[in-house]
Write a structure and sequence with these properties.
alpha+beta; six-stranded mixed β-sheet; 19 strands; 25% strand; elongated
Amino acid sequence: MLFCHSQPESYHQHSATYIREALAPFLKNEEARHVVESGVKRSPFQHVLCAATSPAVKQQEETLTYLNQGQSYEIRMLNRKLVEYTDISSKYVKSIVRVVFHDRRLQYMEHQQLEGWRWNRPGDRILDIDIPLSVGIAEPRAHPLQLNTIEFLWDPEKNASVFIQVNCISTEFTPRKHGGEKGVPFRIQVDTFTPNEQGEYLEHVHSSSCQVKVFKPKGADRKLKTDREKIDKKALQDREKYQPSHETTMLTECSPWPDALNLSSTSSTPSPVYHSSPTSCSFTDGNCSPDQQGELLVAGCSDHLVPSSSPQDIQQWLHRHRFSPFSRLFSCFSGADLLRMSREDLIQICGPADGIRLFNTIKGRCIQPRLTIYVCQQQSRNQPPIKPGGGDVYHALYLEELTLLDLSEKIATLYSVTPQQITHIYRQGPTGIHVLASDEMVQNFSEETSFIISTIRDEKTDGYHVVLK
């Protein structure tokens, strides 16, 4: 569905005027001559953020723009075909808008910083798209796990405008010390792609970005006013060292943002927790022979780093243990390099939360289960003993979560059935009554309680009722 308002005919008829008005503050005499005279092929796209640049930026430095938290700002998506010739074969292009950190140190810690923000602001997004105000865009999307990213399609033959809202402020990512700290700068980056032969928007054609700082509502206006007053008080000779303020901000061409791992896939990666190994027995077997299956082992502790691990092995290990944001930082590290690092070294590089987690994972420290119980399958009367001396064989179930679901999954894993095949779990109570198990019942199990498991076939669902005795 295309989100666009009804537009006057002049919107498209006077596209040239639209583009030139947007670019006017920047196409000064020398730059304009360079555009006309230069034979270098340039990207057909230009993006303009409709917010004033700060006058307190020196000539050789990058522009800086102040934004108000939660306020809608327009980004004009321009095709410069009326300024210079280009050929765009596809009907639509996809643009991905991101709010990212400007400082390299924070870029390495981006995952940790964004997770901290998500924890403090549940349900909020860092970047939103204001669809009612946007013009000429199609299929706007905001992935629920990518809080700082939006994407949409637009027709390069018809200039579009997307309105964005930045909901975080720069001081939220500043260490709290004495108050009044400077906020960290962000970057607004736009990456544009065209479709390949399969219709997937993977062919990168253009990227541009600008530096911004985000203040609480009205704070950007006050900061801009303060900067202007500060520059006006300087001598004329000193003013020439600073850039003039423009009403709009030109996004400058840059490298495409590195392709991060899809958050939806990393979120499904299993955590390095205390796992139970599957066994080969089943409900229909009636027992679980010790010859078939030994005691359940701790699988989460077996993936250790060794000094001989290559940098490629380290990259795979980092991804398996959910340290993907730091894979680029440790791209040249071998196993010996990582094993030499102290806890303090890792905290300094990765931050407190991820640094401690990485140190514990490297040293092979396992997460202890919250509850351990022992279970044995009830034998039939005519069944011979499965152990010399006639003793029963019990197996340990390690519960990481004190829930009925976790108990059901562990029992299903032990007996090689799916959790869906376990219809209900009961605990045998006084006088032999069957009490339906619940989360509250599991939470009140005593540590290292032992149970004998019996099963009743559910004829309706072809599943099992499990009774803990």
